């Protein structure tokens, strides 16, 4: 019995076992297949991130009339001849008659043109226990908590087939992993497994040299590993970036300095982050954007300075050229020596004069000289009050007082944009309160509803309950316990 809310549009809300040993009915048919971009009225961008398709309503009617258990898995084979194949589930039954909308990566795997005819037949796959995956680019290995990312993404898959390419969107990038092998409960060598509503063991091999499987604008970003105290040179075009990475093991024993200096022609700017793997002038945690050689120092008690992997983006502002990047450990005891400028004694401070241009106090004896040179070589920004060399004013205005668009569509000046991305943007990253996985803020509800419903056990009494009830249980059942 189908619930009334189904209406022949989406899957029923219940799940019957796919592998029913007493059920032998099968279903086969052929449909013209198109990628999601051809589905103008009901485009589904999330179709690319799983292995589910959109079928016409008459397929649902055939499934129901055949009394087949849900959810149904179909084997897809390019017609005619039956070359490569894959296995898919169904997301919705809203496609026009005789048509199916399928992910672009399946179009690539089966080497299909838009409108190509594909054979579908029901398949009963063995229950999966494990899979071996291999990323296409080394950037995957630099992500934090890849286990949680895979666990979250594989929930949207109904089956895994050897040779498939899994597309994982994360933090504005798309990562591709190939299915190398799969394993099932019987231990037999099988080409595909069922993974719906199952936890499987996943092994990720080192990056291969596989070529990206497609989609416009999908280019791999290479991060060069920085070695301590070893300069890394890069030659770039004007306003082009090079990205680097390094790891800090112990933040308590040292500060870290990331420095960039021009070698020929360039004006390097440095952007550093732990959360953004490709930091730029519109998305970073730390930055240095002065003219010439620049440096960023990471040190305690900055709460963002913690152990782990850091990402560096270096941009050659306005000019093509070569720059050198160096990451260095600095002793913590030298922190107070970073401050530059004049250190005045108490008597000098009381006798000093405030410069009307830079607003710094200078000794009275040298005030006339300072005032003359300060007005000649330095200028105050009328927007923010910062004082800088006159040659830097144009760059300062371009970077810090130009409005840049956030991914959410709002526009801010640089400093406001960084705060917006971190604290206000609906697309900012946050953590699941139950599993700690990073996810987009506006999507946290769906994830936490699923994650909070998962079972856990109270460490005090051993009682089993959903995760979202554990805190209440601790307050009501164990609040008086020492």
Identify the notable features of this structure and list them briefly.
482 residues, alpha+beta, six-stranded mixed beta sheet, five-stranded mixed beta sheet, 9 helices
Give a brief outline of the structure.
The protein has 482 residues and is α+β, with helices and mostly antiparallel strands.
Could you outline the blueprint of secondary structure elements for this entry?
Layout: E1 28-34, E2 52-56, H1 57-65, E3 74-78, E4 85-95, E5 99-101, H2 104-109, E6 116-122, E7 128-135, H3 146-154, E8 159-161, E9 165-170, E10 173-184, E11 192-194, E12 201-204, E13 223-225, E14 232-236, E15 241-248, E16 254-264, E17 268-273, E18 286-288, E19 294-298, E20 308-316, E21 321-331, H4 346-351, E22 353-354, E23 361-362, H5 367-377, E24 378-380, E25 387-389, H6 393-400, E26 404-405, E27 411-412, H7 414-424, E28 429-431, E29 438-440, H8 444-452, E30 455-457, E31 464-466, H9 470-477
Parallel strand pairs: 1-5, 2-4, 7-12, 13-15
Antiparallel strand pairs: 1-6, 3-4, 3-6, 7-10, 8-11, 9-10, 14-21, 15-20, 16-19, 16-21, 17-18, 17-20, 22-23, 24-25, 26-27, 28-29, 30-31
């Amino acid at each position: 019995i189908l619930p009334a809310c189904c209406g022949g549009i989406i899957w029923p809300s219940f799940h019957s076992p796919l592998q029913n040993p007493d059920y032998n009915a099968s279903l086969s048919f052929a449909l013209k297949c198109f990628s999601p971009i051809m589905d103008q009225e009901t485009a589904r961008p999330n179709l690319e991130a799983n292995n589910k398709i959109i079928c016409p309503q008459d397929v649902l009617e055939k499934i129901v009339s055949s009394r087949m258990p849900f959810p149904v898995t179909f084997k897809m084979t390019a017609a005619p001849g039956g070359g490569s194949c894959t296995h898919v589930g169904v997301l919705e039954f809203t496609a026009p008659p005789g048509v199916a909308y399928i992910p672009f990566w399946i179009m690539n795997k089966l080497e299909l043109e838009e409108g190509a005819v594909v054979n579908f037949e029901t398949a009963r796959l063995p229950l999966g226990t494990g899979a071996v995956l291999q990323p296409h680019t080394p950037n995957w290995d630099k992500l934090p908590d890849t286990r949680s990312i895979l666990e979250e993404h594989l929930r949207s898959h109904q089956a895994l087939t050897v040779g498939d390419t899994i597309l994982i969107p994360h933090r504005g990038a798309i990562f591709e992993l190939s299915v190398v092998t799969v394993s099932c409960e019987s231990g037999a060598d099988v080409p595909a497994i069922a993974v719906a509503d199952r936890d499987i063991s996943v092994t990720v091999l080192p990056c291969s040299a596989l070529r990206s499987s497609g989609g416009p604008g999908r280019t791999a970003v290479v991060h060069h590993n920085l070695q301590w105290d070893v300069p890394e040179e890069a030659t770039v075009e004007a306003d082009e970036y090079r990205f680097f990475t390094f790891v800090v093991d112990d933040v308590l024993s040292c500060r870290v300095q990331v420095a960039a200096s021009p070698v020929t022609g360039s004006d390097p700017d440095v952007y550093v982050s732990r959360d953004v793997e490709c930091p730029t002038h519109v998305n970073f945690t730390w930055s240095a954007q002065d003219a010439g050689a620049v440096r960023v120092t990471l040190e305690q008690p900055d709460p963002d300075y913690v152990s782990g992997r850091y990402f560096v983006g270096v941009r050659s502002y306005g000019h093509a050229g070569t720059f050198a990047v160096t990451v260095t450990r600095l002793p913590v005891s030298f922190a107070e020596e970073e401050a530059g400028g004049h250190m005045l004694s108490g008597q000098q401070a009381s006798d000093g004069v405030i410069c009307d241009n830079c607003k710094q106090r200078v000794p009275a004896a040298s005030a006339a000289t300072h005032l003359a040179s300060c007005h000649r070589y330095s200028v105050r920004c009328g927007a923010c009050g910062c004082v800088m060399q006159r040659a830097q004013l144009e760059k300062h205005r371009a970077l810090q007082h130009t409005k840049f668009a956030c991914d959410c569509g709002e526009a801010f000046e640089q400093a406001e944009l960084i705060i917006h991305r971190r604290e206000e943007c609906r697309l900012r990253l946050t953590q699941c309160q139950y599993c700690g996985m990073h996810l987009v803020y506006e999507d946290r509800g769906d994830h936490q509803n699923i994650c909070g419903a998962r079972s856990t056990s109270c460490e005090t009494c051993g009682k089993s309950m959903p995760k979202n009830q554990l805190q209440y249980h601790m307050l009501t059942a164990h609040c008086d316990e020492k």
